[in-house]
Structures are given as C-alpha cells and as structure tokens.
C-alpha cells in the first residue's frame, strides 16, 4: 500500500508473508474486534469512505499520531519506516532466525541484510538472546528496562534528518 493504492514489490515477486510478533497480533486482534470484525478482504484502517488512506490522511496520521508518540518518547527524528528496522533488530536479537530467513522477511538479499545490520550482529556477540515477544512485553511493563539503542555507527535510519522549511 502506498499513497492510498495497492502496489506490488519492486522486485515483482509475489507478496511476502511476515511473521507478526505476539504483542502486535494481540493489538491487531483487539482493533479487529473493536472495528466490528471486518471480513478478510476489508481494510482494518479504512477512511470514513471505507477506502485506503490517500496521501494527505497518511501525512496527517504521521504528524498527529506517530509524531505525538515520538515526542512523548523523546525519539526526535524517528519516522514510521524506523519500525521496520526495529523489527529486524528484534529478530536478530532473538538469534532464532538465520540472516537468510530475516532477509526474506524484508525482501532483501542476505548480503544487504548483513551490510545493513552488521553492527547489530556484532553488538550481540556473546550477549543473552531474548525472544522478541518477551522483550516487547518487558518493555511495555517497564520502559526503563531497555533504554533507547545507541548505534555504534551512523546508518540511514539514525542519521540526523534535516527538515525543509515550511
């Protein structure tokens, strides 16, 4: 989905199936019930007209809802795309999947995944493996348990972002 339209992958492969972590599955199940249990072919987050969000709705959500969460958590510069990298890092921290399997979730070649997440893999050398579901549950109970990750090097998602003047 992009700017209110369904689109395929850049590599023209069939859609990927991505594992949902248990806390997200539970959150989505609650939203599904609250939305009146829409059918499988219906959108869970439609516009008032039961359509996909157009670009302006997405931008409003990003500014009002996601932006408010970013400010509340003091995560200056975070963008929704960062959630993709958080998911990859959680999978790496688990230590249950190979780089090839993780790359498959993201539509990457394993070499791209290694290039992108080598610093995360290196930081985990000898560290205790914690299941992603457990890490999220603990963080929800006590946000101070897992302080914000301080990357060891600049990556595309943690470089300072410059904002265009309005």
Features:
mainly alpha; 166 residues; disordered C terminus
Largest sheet geometry: none
Globular, elongated, flat, extended or rod-shaped: what is the shape? globular
Oligomer class: single chain
Sheet/helix structural class: mainly alpha
Number of helices: 6
Helicity level, as a percent range? 40-55%
- Residue fraction in strands: under 5%
Radius of gyration over alpha carbons? 18 Å
| Model regions low in confidence, pLDDT < 50 over at least 5 residues | 149-166
How far apart are the first and last residues' alpha carbons, in Å? 27 Å
Task: Give a description of the structure.
- This protein is mostly helical.
- It has a domain at about 80-155.
- The protein is built from 6 helices and no strands.
- Helix 4 packs across helix 5.
- It starts with about 20 loop residues before the first helix and ends in a 25-residue tail after the last helix.
């Amino acid at each position: 989905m992009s700017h209110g339209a369904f689109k395929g992958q850049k590599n023209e492969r069939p859609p990927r199936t991505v594992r949902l972590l248990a806390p997200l599955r539970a959150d989505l199940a609650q939203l599904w019930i609250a939305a009146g249990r829409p059918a499988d072919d219906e959108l869970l987050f439609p516009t008032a007209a039961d359509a996909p969000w157009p670009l302006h709705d997405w931008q409003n959500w990003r500014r009002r809802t996601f932006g408010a969460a970013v400010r509340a958590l003091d995560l200056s510069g975070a963008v929704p795309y960062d959630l993709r990298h958080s998911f990859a890092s959680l999978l790496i921290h688990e230590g249950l999947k190979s780089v090839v399997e993780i790359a498959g979730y993201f539509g990457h070649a394993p070499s791209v995944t290694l290039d992108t997440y080598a610093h995360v893999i290196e930081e985990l050398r000898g560290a205790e493996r914690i299941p992603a579901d457990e890490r999220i549950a603990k963080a929800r109970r006590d946000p101070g348990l897992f302080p914000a990750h301080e990357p060891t090097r600049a990556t595309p998602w943690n470089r300072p972002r410059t904002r265009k003047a309005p």
